[in-house]
Specification:
By secondary structure, the chain is α/β, with parallel strands linked by helices. It contains eight helices and eleven strands.
Length: 245
């Protein structure tokens, strides 16, 4: 596997020594899920990109505190990059902000969730039990941290995960796109850090509920195994549901 990770944020300085960055979090997780090979991390906020995406098996877009519909110059450059990658049918994996940005580039509405922040451990219905490494599951618990979400499903896409709070929680387009709203790369301590940072925004009742939920564990490794299977899987003919763009 040769994976390009587009890292779309910088961690707060107080925790960089522990977690390094979102790119490092993903490399740790994907290697734990069985991935071997080369991982190259480029920080898009700093304008870092590979000279070419041609030799990569896939491109992974991380989360970010930014909005995918932002007019910030670096977000606009990234959006144009993703549109070009979709046109070349490069395999894409999107998580949280990455999930939203890919959906936006595929023509979907993305915006503030009217129900507020999705945070802590959240349970989703898993709708694709037959996917490689899904192991027949019908539910999955993941750690979330988002105030934006995708409101509709891209044309030709398959809904993979859903909940009442987040109806479009994961989707795939053929064997070219795999996107998840929640954060498989998070660990409980990092989620706890974010919850403490946003305690006033969340309100005491929601904060307490979210903190307590972390003790129940999550299944980020299961999603990572599905991501590895997606990246390493063969590229096949497009399905009849319609083009991705």
């Amino acid at each position: 596997m040769k994976l390009c990770i587009l890292e779309n944020d910088d961690l707060d300085p107080t925790i960089q020594a522990t977690y390094i960055g979102y790119g490092a979090m993903f490399e740790r997780l994907l290697r734990e899920a069985g991935a071997n090979g080369e991982f190259d991390v480029f920080n898009t906020v700093k304008g870092q990109y590979p000279d070419s995406f041609e030799n990569y098996d896939a491109v992974l877009l991380t989360g970010s505190r930014a909005d995918c519909f932002s007019q910030d110059p670096w977000v606009q450059v990234l959006r144009h990059t993703v549109e070009a990658l979709l046109d070349t049918k490069k395999k894409l994996v999107g998580v949280c902000f990455g999930h939203q940005l890919i959906a936006l580039c595929l023509g979907c509405k993305v915006g503030r969730a009217p129900q507020g922040w999705g945070a802590g451990r959240m349970l989703y219905q898993w709708l694709a039990p037959e996917l490689p490494q899904a192991q027949g599951r019908h539910n999955i618990a993941l750690l979330a941290s988002h105030q934006d979400q995708v409101f509709d499903l891209p044309q030709g896409a398959r809904l993979l995960a859903s909940s009442e709070f987040c109806p479009v929680a994961a989707f795939a387009v053929d064997d070219r796109v795999f996107c998840v709203q929640a954060h498989p790369e998070f660990v409980a301590d990092y989620s706890s850090y974010l919850l403490n940072k946003r305690r006033a925004l969340l309100g005491e009742e929601k904060y307490t509920s979210c903190i307590q939920s972390l003790a129940q564990g999550h299944e980020g490794l299961a999603v990572a195994r599905m991501m590895v299977a997606f990246i390493e899987g063969p590229v096949t003919a497009r399905v009849a549901a319609g083009p991705a763009r």
